[in-house]
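Good morning,

Attaching, inline, the backbone tokens for the sequence recovery test we're adding to the shared suite. The designed sequence is right after.
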């Protein structure tokens, strides 16, 4: 069940439901912002809808807002929880804990606090990293996992240092983001240049200006938000070591791996097949790195079909035909 709000204050200001631009019509009639105390930190979540629980976790450098175009339809079948993880948006920004093992524990604690013992999850980009960690470390909590548009450090093959120009343009931010402090010094005051380039070069269809300005504005307004945005990458040594250990525990739950044809493509499913036995692959045409915003109708259709057995109360054991084919 969904527990009532606690004594925590109502989230306000940029990043809350009441202070983000261009939401779908009647969005605020279904969804509200709330703070959730996990016992270790305070997370900001946007919740609403009816049905079994569905956790939505976006990636770098986005917030819960990345899911806005899908949330109204999903809320017809699910209790939707779109969350800002630690370091993001209106959530707390501690100095540490950005490895995926800790991020996964944060999500389990969040869902515990909301009264959800079992749930399905959709993770994009860094949210895909966390989704893999959660499925591997807490297999009793997830029913189904959909992931999109990422390689997983420590699981996916590492690209060569002297790769192609295309690969370098796509991946150079990994090395930059892992630096100790010079990246904050170089990006501070130039957030629109740095993060704006990320959005412009990784999308096949340009994201709306209001969305890009919102994401970048959140990072530019708070030095701690900028610092935290790099911490996910600074924790990669720990995350890689964790993922190398996780490979010994293959995932048995159904996994939907989504790639944009103009960015990661089929490599998303190739990555997940290194870790999971039941992987369905989907490559979205005319889509880059941001499927929930570039091709929301196709993304919604894929999630609706994949999550239907979970919505209807069926488990993987109840489904007679095996998954695992490419779509």
């Amino acid at each position: 069940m969904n527990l009532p709000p606690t004594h925590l204050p109502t989230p306000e200001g940029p990043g809350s439901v009441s202070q983000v631009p261009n939401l779908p019509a009647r969005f605020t009639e279904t969804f509200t912002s709330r703070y959730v105390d996990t016992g270790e930190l305070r997370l900001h979540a946007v919740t609403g809808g009816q049905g079994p629980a569905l956790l939505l976790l976006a990636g770098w450098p986005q917030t819960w807002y990345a899911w806005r175009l899908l949330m109204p339809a999903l809320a017809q079948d699910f209790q939707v929880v779109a969350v800002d993880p630690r370091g993001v948006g209106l959530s707390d920004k501690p100095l540490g804990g950005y490895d995926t093992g800790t991020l996964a524990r944060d999500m389990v604690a969040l869902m515990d606090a909301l009264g959800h013992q079992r749930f399905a999850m959709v993770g994009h980009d860094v949210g895909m990293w966390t989704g893999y960690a959660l499925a591997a470390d807490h297999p009793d909590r997830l029913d189904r996992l959909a992931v999109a548009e990422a390689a997983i450090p420590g699981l996916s093959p590492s690209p060569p240092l002297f790769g192609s120009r295309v690969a370098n343009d796509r991946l150079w931010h990994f090395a930059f983001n892992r630096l100790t402090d010079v990246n904050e010094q170089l990006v501070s005051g130039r957030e629109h240049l740095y993060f704006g380039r990320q959005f412009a070069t990784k999308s096949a269809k340009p994201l709306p200006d209001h969305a890009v300005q919102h994401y970048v504005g959140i990072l530019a307004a708070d030095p701690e938000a900028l610092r935290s945005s790099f911490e996910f990458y600074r924790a990669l040594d720990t995350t890689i070591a964790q993922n190398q250990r996780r490979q010994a525990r293959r995932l048995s739950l159904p996994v939907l791996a989504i790639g944009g044809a103009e960015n990661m493509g089929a490599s998303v499913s190739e990555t997940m097949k290194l870790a999971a036995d039941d992987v369905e692959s989907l490559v979205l045409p005319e889509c880059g790195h941001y499927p929930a915003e570039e091709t929301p109708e196709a993304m919604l259709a894929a999630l609706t079909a994949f999550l239907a057995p979970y919505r209807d109360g069926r488990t993987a054991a109840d489904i007679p035909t095996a998954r695992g084919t490419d779509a």
